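Consider today's protein:

***
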Amino acid sequence: MNIKKGISALLITVVLILSITIMPVSAVSDNEINVQECETYVQKMKYDFMSTGVKRPYAGYYYVHSNELADELITVASEYESGKATADELQNKYDETKDFYENPWIRPDYAGYTCYIAVNEKNYNNWYYEGQWNTFVEKRENLVKALSVNHPDFVPKEYGEGIEEEEYTLEQQKYISKCFYELLEIYNEMTCGGIVLGDVNKDGFVNVADVTLIQKYIAGEAEFTDAQKLRARVNCDSYSVSIKDGTTVQKCIAGYTDAYFYPNGVVKNERDFATSLDNWQICSQW
């Protein structure tokens, strides 16, 4: 009986040892990334790049860096198949590519330019609602703090001058992007909500009063918020409010058939914002 118990105990011990030895190997095999999965994901990325897709703020950097990561992933997948790269290296590159493509962060200098524009925005004549403006100021300050983490004396400059990407860790860059997107969302809500092109006094109509106000702005007798500038730029070639815009509004009021407003200027909500080229002031890199 003791012999049988001893044999049973020995068998149990052997089974436990084998299970401990075999399980990690089995686990690695189950979780090991599939090369085909990587290739399929890259194909999806490339297809999105070629189609209109969902545009992102500072799309140039987004698409360029996504393409670079996609090419790197294919290279590592090929090296993995030939035994030149490990499963961990392939998995890490896949995770890095997927993370940026689906949750992109922007370059700190781009955020710095946005910060510069935001800091210089003023709530002239209480154009913006108090709640919106207070939220905007809060998000603006968050972005300033995020950019100044390594620069106690940070002052936003035009075009993000003086900001080097290498000075920030990846986590810092992601946090800067988070602050950027939060600021962008409230800015879009402030400037693009229920926009009526040509209506610069926010009464819901386009009439002579708007033309007069545009003329005063051009002459330096009135100040415009960015929202008013967006409404005043009715021509597709307008990068600043000009006499041409005022003339176009006048002609439309008078019923001239050769006068029309740039249709893509109408932005109804934040989902449309990234496909609009009108708010070039805060997203100049589209």
